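@channel sequence for tomorrow's demo:
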Amino acid sequence: MRSIQAACLCLFVMALSAACVFAQVDPQAMRVSPNPGAGTYDAPFWPDGTYKDDIQSPDQVLGYPVGSKPAPHADLLKYFEYLDQFPNAELRSYGETYEGRKLVYLVVASDANAGRLEEIRANCLKLADPRTLGGADPKKLIDHMPAVAWMAYGIHGDELSSCDAALELAYQLMAGTDAATKQILDNCVVIIDPSENPDGRSRWITQLTAWNSVTPSHDIQSMSHTGMWPYGRTNHYLFDLNRDWFAQVHPETRGKTKAIMEWMPHYVLDCHEMGPFDQYLISPPREPFNPYMTSYIHKWWERVARSHAAAFDKFGWSYYTREWNEEIYPGYGSSYGIYLGAIGMLFEQAGVDGSQVKRPDGTIMTYRETVHHQFIGSMANLSAVATGRKELLNDYVAEKQANLKSKPVTFVLARGNNQTRLDRLVEKLEAQHIEVERTTKTFTLSKALAWDGTNTRSVDLPPGSAIVRTNQPLRPLINAILTFDIRIPTAFLKTEKKEILAHDDSRLYDATGWSMPLAYGIETYRVEGSFGGNTEKYALTARKGSLANEKAKVGFAFDGTDDTAYEMLARLFENNVNVWCSKKPFRAGNVNLPRGSFLIRRAGNQPLDVATLRSLAEAAGVSLIGIDEGLATGVYADLGGNDFVLLKAPRIAVIAGTRINGNDYGAIWHLIDSRLRMRMSTLDIVNVDGADLGKYNVIVLPDGSMSAYKGGLGDGGIDNLKAFARAGGTLIGEGGGAAFLADSSIAISSARSRSQVLKDIDKYTRAVTLSRTAFTPEVDSLSVWGVKVEKPKDNKKEKEKDKDTEKSAEKSESSDSDTVKREDEMARKLYPHGAIVAVDVNTDHWLGYGCNSVVPAILNSSLALVTENVEVPARLAPAERLRLSGLMWEEARARWGQTVYAARDGYGNGQAIVFAAIPNFRGYYHGAERMLLNALFLGPGFGTAARVDW
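C-alpha cells (generated this afternoon):
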C-alpha cells in the first residue's frame, strides 16, 4: 500500500512540476528573435586576423554580433563615435537628413598619415587641378602620397547589409595588425560613409522589426521581407538618392558631394543589394558606355575586379560581372565617381532583409553571410587600390592634365526672363566644382548647336548669360550632364530592339535622357571652340526683393514669369491676401508685365497691410510694383476688368498608398511641402471612399497602376472623387493617375489612352488639327471675302466610283483595324525609355503661363493620351521634332507625336487636368514643372465655377 501511495505521490509531484513549468514560462523565451540574421553561419569575417587589444569590436561596443541583425543608425553612429577617440581616425559630419539624422564619414589612416590628413587632402586637390601645382612635377607628390578611397554604403535604405559591413571594415582597418590590412593603410587613406540614407534605413528596419517573429521566416513573400508602402529604398521625401548625384536636390546629396569634392578621392565604392535569389554583382559593367567616362576606367575595372574575384574564390562564393548593369546614365554613385576622375565601382549583394532567405537551391542565406560578402569585397578592392597606388595616381593626374589641354567646347546658357532658374542651375554646377562665367556685354553667336538639336546662326546673347567651358579639370562631368543628347551606339541599338521585341525586356537600366539645361528649360547653345565674348566669374548673390511706391492707390503687381513668383504667391495665400492673375499683359507703372502676372488690388483687400507685403517680397526676392492708375491703352488690360481672375488659395490633398509610384508622390510632396512650404494632406487610397473631400479644392493623383486606382479606391472612392469634381474641385492626374481619370470606364477626363480608342483613332487624329487651329488660327482675307465656290459635277461615273470606294473601305476596315492594333502594340513595346521630348505649349492658356513655347519633358511609359477636346494647353511635338534627347524609336515617335501632354476638362463645376507623364521628374525638371505649379495654384480660380460664400 505504501509503495502504491508513494508511486501516486511521485506522479502527483511530477504532474505538479510540469504544470508549474508551463505556468511559469520565462517571458524571454517567447520574445521575437533578437538576432534574426544570425542563423548557423559563423565563419569569421577575417580568417586568421590579429587585432589590437585596446580597440573594441562592434560586437563589444553594441552588445550584439555584427550581422546578427541590421544595426540601427544610432548604433552605427555610436560605434563610429567610439572610434573617433583614437589618433588614426577622425569622424566628420557632412550634414543632416530631413528627419534630423546625422550624416558622417570616418577617415582612417596609418599612424604616419594620421598626423598629416590636411596635407594629404590639400595634395589631392592639387592633383585634381594641376593648374594649382604652379608648374611643379606632380610625380614628386605622388611618390609620398597615399591614394584616397571613398567607401559609401546604404544609399538605398532597404539595402541593409552594406552598412553593417561598414562597421566591420572600420574595425578591421582600425584594429587589424595583419599584413594585408597594414598594406592598405600604408598606401591609402580610407574614408567610410556608413549610411548615406539613414531616414530610409530607419523606416525599413522599423517595418521589418514590426513583422519579426520568434522564428524568422525564410519566405521572401512574408511581410518580414516585403514590408509596406512606401518601403525603405528612398529618403524622407521618397526620392531615390542614387539618382540625385548631379541633380543635387536633397541635403543628403549636397552634403555628401561637397565632402567628396573636399577630398577628390581616387576610388569610389557604391555598395548595394539586389534580389534575394541573385548572387553577387561586381563591376565592370557592360555596354552601352557613356562616351565621356575617364579614359583609364576600363583598365582599373578589370584590375580591381580580379582582386575581388580572387578574394571570393577563396571562400567559394558565387559572383558575376556585366550581366545587367550598363554605364550610360551618369547619375549613380559608382558612375558619378568616374566623372570626377576616380575608379567608380559597384557591388550588388543578394539581399535578405536583415534575416534569412531560403533560396531555390534549398540553401539558407543569412544576413550575417551577406554582410561578410560586402566586407570581403570592400577589403579586396582596397587591396587592389593599395597595390596599384602609384600607377593609379599617375593615371589620375595625366587625365586631369589632358582635360585642361583638350580642345574646348563651350556651353552657353542664355539669360532669359527667369533669372532665378538660371541662378539655381549655376548654383548646382558650382557646387560640383564646375567653373561658370557670365557675359558682361551683349554678344552674338555666329554658329552654334541649339538645345533642340538645330544648327543656328546669329544668336544674340544678353549680358548675364552663363558660360561653361569644357577645358577644365572636370571636363567629363561637364560633358556628361550638360550635353543635350548622348547617343547610344548603333550596334547596341540592334541588340536592344531585339531584346524588346523578342523577349519583352530591355538591356537599359535607367533614363536615356537627363541633360540639366533641358530639364531646367533654359535656352542653351553648344559652341565648338572657346567663347570669344567678354566674361567674368559668375557670382551668385541672393536676389533682393522690394516694394516700390508703397502708397499706390490701385494696388501692387509682380511678374509671374520668374520661379520666385510662386514662392511669393504661397506666402500671400498664407497671409489671406486676395490675388488676381492676368489673362492679358498689363502695365504696372512703367513696367510691362506678361499674362500670368499677379495683381493685388487695394479694393479687394480691405485693409491691405503694406508692411507685410514688403516683408514677403523681400523674403521671396520679388519686386512688387505699386500702381496708381487702372486705365490702360493699346493691348494692355484695364486693371479693374475681367481679364483678371481672382485666385483661390489651394487646399491640396495627394493620393498615396500601395502601388502608387512613390517617387512621383515624393516629387509632388517635396515641391509643395519642402520647397513652397505649403500645407498639404496625404490621403491613403483605400480611405478615399469615406473621406470628407470637401476640405480640399485640389486633389492630385500621382503616377500609379490602373489596378491600384480602381482596386484601391473601389466604387465608393471613385464616386467620392467624381462628387468632389462636380462640386467645384480640381483633380490633377499624372502618368498612371491621368490614365485612370481618362479611362473609358471612369471618364472624368475626356482624354483617352490611345490603345483604348484604336477603332476611332482617325477621329482623334482629326481633333489634333482642330486643336492646333483653335490656338493658332490662320486667316486668309481673300478666302474670307472673296472665295469662289464651285458647283459639284453631276457625273454618274464619279458617283459609281465613290460607291465602289466605300464598299472597298468597308471590306478592308477589319484588316486595317488589325494592322493598327499590331502597329500600336509594337510601338507600345518600344515606348520612350526615359527620353526627353519637345512639348508644344500654348502660352495663352493659363496652364502655359510662364512657360516657353516649347518645353522639354521626360517620357518613360507606354501611355499615350488622345482627346477630341480642343482645350489641350500642351501637346507633344510632331514626330519629326519630338525627340530631344535619349532613346526614342521611330515607331514610338510616330505613335506619340502630337499626342496630349496636358489637357483640361470641365467636370460639373470642377475640372480634371491630366499630364501624360511626370512634370517634375526627380525634382529637377523645372521647365515642365511650371505647368504643374499652374495647375495647383491657378486651377481653383481659373478652371472651376465661381462660388460666393455668404
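heads up for whoever presents: The first strand starts at residue 89 and ends at 96.
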